[in-house]
Amino acid sequence: MRTDDLIKALDADARSTAMPLGTAWWLAAGGAAVIAAVVFWLTIGPRADIATAMHTMRFLAKFVFTAALAVSAFALIRALSTPGASTSRAAAWMIAAPLLVVIAVVLELLSVPAAEWGTRLVGSNMVICLTFIPLIGIGPLAVFIAVLRYGAPTRPVLAGTVAGLLAGGLAATFYAAHCFDDSPLFVATWYTMAIAILAALGALGGRLFVRW
Amino acid sequence: MTGKDEAELSRLMRAAIAGDEKAYADFLRRTAALVRGFIRRKIVQGGVDPEDVVQETLLAIHVKRHTWRQDLAVLPWVYAIARFKLIDAFRRRGRRIEIEIDEIAETFAEPEAETVSERDIDRALDGLPPAQRSVVSSVSVEGRSIRETAAKYGISETAVRVSLHRGLAAIAKRFGAKQFGRE
Description:
Chain A is 77% helix and 0% strand. By secondary structure, chain A is mainly α. Chain B has two domains: 1-113, Rna Polymerase Sigma Factor, Chain: A (Orthogonal Bundle); 118-183, Winged helix-like DNA-binding domain superfamily/Winged helix DNA-binding domain (Arc Repressor Mutant, subunit A, Orthogonal Bundle).
């Protein structure tokens, strides 16, 4: 088939009724949040003393970290799924969440006696954390991989990894409302590992399923 | 790549997405010529037929046109797709990538005319279900309009449009499949 002939066929199919990718991302974000919320409420739910916890810095700080990760990953994944879009600014913002965690860890080390560091780091919920962040995040990750297939990421593995980070940020935001371990030492260790599991799954998903 | 090209192509693509077939034909012809110039400059080693990559790029542009944000420039989007499809073409043929992934070729891309030989797209077309294959062939190679194709096969124009749309999407997908390509 000559290219001119191909153009005739494409031309006869000119009108596009497909939803713009930007709209699809917002719908996906909404859908993913609903899925995460349902799984969260059906399994672990918020901690009993959440009203009191709301008044403590350490508890609230967890949501700042996880929300920072989710928001920055959302901006980056939108750019990564659009060919030719500039990703450098969005990529630079990905440093925000880790940086906030590092600052919090330093403050924690300065304010808590060294003898307590170990107990705070290990906490009492690490197995639950490593189980439920991936469990809450897996549904949203599937949604994000589906949108990547709908989009056109020129770096599928990287885009899949960012989809995992986005799902991780979202899942960790819900999980943080359940967990009693509020120390930044716990968050920096176990949340990071749980989110890394989702990021690895996302990379694999990008490699296997995102072809266009 | 000039500012004038960019403004004109963006305008044509916006009109095309709204359903203006004439604007889309203009857009595709001009884009094909630019992409051809770009691809030929990028392929320094043999083994990949530039025209196959041009056709694959056009199909990808077509099935992914909802990923272009209408307030952004269209040419960087076009060249990013072309570059991706070129790398993919090398990878599928099990070659180390011997092209430069820089932006310079875009600056020198000049419109070029196509050469004719057997195409990957014909193999992809052959793999379609018969109904889709006859509709796609009728509109492309045989040069019939939607209405003439509908009359020839005794089906509605809507059915022709649906078959054409699905057939093109299936061809684009086959191009993207890993196992596809010449032996």
